[in-house]
Write a structure and sequence with these properties.
385 residues; alpha+beta; Ubiquitin-like (UB roll); Creatine Kinase, Chain A, domain 2; 2 domains; eight-stranded mixed sheet; globular; disordered N terminus; nucleotide-binding
Length: 385
C-alpha cells in the first residue's frame, strides 16, 4: 500500500472569520461564526491535549465529495503505516446497502492539520468493502497499481483546479440576484472591487494548503466572475491524486468557516460564460528528454484513439462545457495544437520551441476524479495503442 510521510511545517496559520458587519448582506451567515464565538474557540484550540493527537480521517464518497470524522490517537505519528484501519456507515454516504453497511477506511497519506495545528493530522483514506475488495468508488486503488507498474517512466502531473464560489442560495458571489454581471473580460486575473470576489477565502485556502504540505503552485481569478483556479503539482504518480483530493477537502473546510459553498460543476451557470475544468498537464522521461516532441506527437495518436474512453471518466456534466466554445474543444472530436486553448490538447508554445516538455489535456471537467484522470492517461500512453 502506498504511503506518504508527514510533511513538517511550523508556519502559524489561523482561520478567524472577520467580525460581522450587520449591514453586509453579501455573504451567507448560515455557518459563519461570530467574532465573539471565534475568540472562544481559539481559547479551546490552545488547550493542552495531554499528549493525545486528533486524526481527521478523510475519504471520497459516492458523489465525488469528501467526508471526514475524527479519531483520537495516543501519540504522534509520522507515517500512514502507523495508523489503524477504521470504518463508517456506507449506507449514509451512498457507498453500501443498509444490510451490509460497514465500509472500511485505510490510511494512505497524512498531512499536517492547518486548523488544529500541533501534532494533529489529516488522514487521506481508501475505502474498502467487508469482503476485502476495493469499494466501487475507490478509484485510487487501480490508479496506484498503474502508477507502480509504470514507475520507471516517472510520470509527472500538474492539475489546474477551477471552481466557483456560491452563496447559501446557490448563486455566485458578486452576481445580481436573478441577474447577470457584466460580460467576461475584466475578471480573469482581475484586481479590484467589482472584478474579483471572495479573495479572503481563496487566500485562506492557499495558506492552508501550504501549511498542510500540499504541493500547491499558484492561484488566480478565472474568466467567469466568482470563479477561481489553483494549481497543484508537479507531483509524480499517485501523489498527484492524493494532493489534489486533500486540497479539495481543505477548500470545502475553509469555505465552511466563511459561510460559502464550493461548486465543482463544469458549467455552473448556463449561457455565455466559461465553464470550469481540471486541466491536466502531463510529462514523462520520454517527453522531457531531448527530442521529446516526438514522444508528445506519438502520445496524441494514442489519446485520439481512446477519446471516448477518456471522456467517460473525465467528469459528470462535461457535455455542457466541451462545446467548442469558451476555450474548449468539442466533446465529440479530438484535436490538438500548439498554444491552442480551443483543442482537446494544448502543446505549450515553449515546449514546441524547445522540442520537449509536456502537454495539457484540457478535456477533464472540474469535478473529475484525479485518480481516474491520471490513471487512464498512464494506461493509454503505456498501452501500445
Amino acid at each position: 500500500m502506498a504511503t506518504s510521510t508527514i510533511v513538517s511545517n511550523t508556519e502559524n496559520v489561523r482561520f478567524s472569520p472577520p467580525a460581522l458587519d450587520p449591514a453586509d448582506k453579501t455573504r451567507s451567515r448560515d455557518n459563519l461564526t461570530t467574532h465573539s464565538n471565534t475568540l472562544q474557540l481559539l481559547k479551546y484550540l490552545a488547550l493542552d491535549q495531554k499528549g493525545k493527537v486528533m486524526a481527521e480521517y478523510v475519504w471520497i464518497d459516492a458523489e465525488g465529495g469528501v467526508r471526514s470524522k475524527t479519531k483520537t490517537l495516543s501519540k504522534a505519528v509520522t507515517s500512514a503505516d502507523e495508523l489503524p484501519e477504521w470504518n463508517f456507515d456506507g449506507s449514509s454516504t451512498g457507498q453500501a446497502p443498509g444490510d451490509n453497511s460497514d465500509v472500511y477506511i485505510r490510511p494512505v497519506a497524512i498531512f499536517p492539520d492547518p486548523f488544529r495545528k500541533g501534532d494533529n493530522i489529516l488522514v487521506l483514506c481508501e475505502t474498502w468493502d467487508s469482503d476485502g475488495t476495493p469499494n466501487k468508488f475507490n478509484h485510487r486503488h487501480e490508479a496506484a497499481k498503474l502508477m507502480e507498474t509504470h514507475a520507471d517512466q516517472h510520470f509527472w502531473f500538474g492539475l489546474e483546479q477551477e471552481y466557483t464560489l456560491l452563496g447559501s442560495d446557490g448563486w455566485p458571489y458578486g452576481w445580481p440576484k436573478g441577474g447577470f454581471p457584466g460580460p467576461q473580460g475584466p475578471y480573469y486575473c482581475g484586481v479590484g472591487t467589482g472584478k474579483v470576489y471572495c479573495r479572503d477565502i481563496v487566500e485562506a485556502h492557499y495558506k492552508a494548503c501550504l501549511y498542510a504540505g500540499i504541493n500547491i503552485s499558484g492561484i488566480n481569478a478565472e474568466v467567469m466572475p466568482a470563479q477561481w483556479e489553483y494549481q497543484v503539482g508537479p507531483c509524480e504518480g499517485i501523489q498527484m491524486g492524493d494532493h489534489l483530493w486533500m486540497s479539495r477537502f481543505l477548500l470545502h473546510r475553509v469555505a465552511e468557516e466563511f459561510g460559502a459553498q464550493i461548486s465543482f460543476h463544469p458549467k455552473p451557470i448556463p449561457g455565455d460564460w466559461n465553464g470550469a475544468g481540471l486541466h491536466t498537464n502531463v510529462s514523462n522521461d520520454a517527453t522531457r528528454a531531448e527530442g521529446g516532441i516526438k514522444a508528445i506527437e506519438a502520445a496524441m495518436k494514442k489519446l485520439e484513439a481512446r477519446h471516448v474512453e477518456h471522456i467517460a471518466v473525465y467528469g459528470e456534466g462535461n457535455e455542457a462545457r466541451l462545446t467548442g466554445r469558451h476555450e474548449t474543444g468539442s466533446i465529440d472530436k479530438f484535436s490538438y495544437g500548439v498554444a491552442d486553448r480551443g483543442g482537446s490538447i494544448r502543446i505549450p508554445r515553449q515546449c514546441a520551441k524547445d522540442g520537449k516538455g509536456y502537454f495539457e489535456d484540457r478535456r477533464p471537467a472540474s469535478n473529475a476524479d484525479p485518480y481516474q484522470v491520471t490513471g487512464i492517461i498512464v494506461e493509454t500512453l503505456c498501452g501500445g495503442v
